[in-house]
Write a structure and sequence with these properties.
The protein has 253 residues and is α+β, with helices and mostly antiparallel strands. The chain has two domains: 2-76, Nucleic acid-binding proteins (OB fold (Dihydrolipoamide Acetyltransferase, E2P), Beta Barrel), CATH 2.40.50.140; 79-249, de novo design (two linked rop proteins). Helix content is 36%, strand content 23%. The protein has six helices and eight strands. It has a five-stranded mixed beta barrel with strand order 1-2-3-5-4. A three-stranded antiparallel beta sheet has the order 7-6-8. Helix 2 (109-124) runs antiparallel to helix 3 and helix 3 (129-146) packs across helix 4. The radius of gyration is 20 Å and the shape is elongated. It binds zinc ion. It holds the Pfam family RecO_N.
Amino acid sequence: MFVKSEGIVLKEIRFRETSKIVTIFSKEYGKVHGMAKGAYRPKNNLISITQPFSYSDFSFFKGKNFYHINQGDLKNSFYPLRENIYKLFYGSYMLELADSSIVEDESNEKLFQLLLKGLTVLSDLKGDYLKFILAYEIKYISFLGYKPYLDKCVLCGQKLEGRDMIFSIISGGILCGNCVYEDLNGFRINLSMLKTLKLLLYTPLDKLTDFKINKDIMFILHDIMVKYILYSIEKNSFNSLNLFKSIENRGGN
Ligand SMILES: [Zn+2]
């Protein structure tokens, strides 16, 4: 059966001498594995459309275990993501996050559009990468169905007014001063961090330049978000972020 879908390549694995198996986030069918025959041969017409990040219109033949990629029209290669180390690492993290969390053969257009928009914005970004990735993380995990509860205390519903609050990963949101003892592994959070989280959740990815966030706060929130995401999708770590840590330690953003 022949099928068509837009898709973004998340991952590639070499198969035999000249072929590869690519993992694609397709708009119509969610995550699919596509066999690209001869994609390592020079001048093969599948080369450009089977690179990670590439966004294309694909034509597949749907086999028993695989989608066989017949052809495709490249819509965007997101080339700038390969030219800057921060863009490359954060972009790879976005692909790994999608690969780890989306379901096979089940479309999720909201997440597809978020990834597409994310790669587009990241491609054009000129700095402030941490703010971008933090906004992406909180939007992504919310769209996936784990939107953190930030308006009131998750447990008792009390208004969040200030002191001694924590972000509780296991409860999926903020615990007030009276409830902090319900989660001894929670992360201390103050009102301005809470405000920042909400701002990042509700501001579109291409409007983040409108405000500034203190760098220390961003590091703390990023750390909390990564742990919250890992817990929510039942994963231990992200390879892309582990690699990135050595660079981060050398400074810069
Ligand atoms: Zn409470």
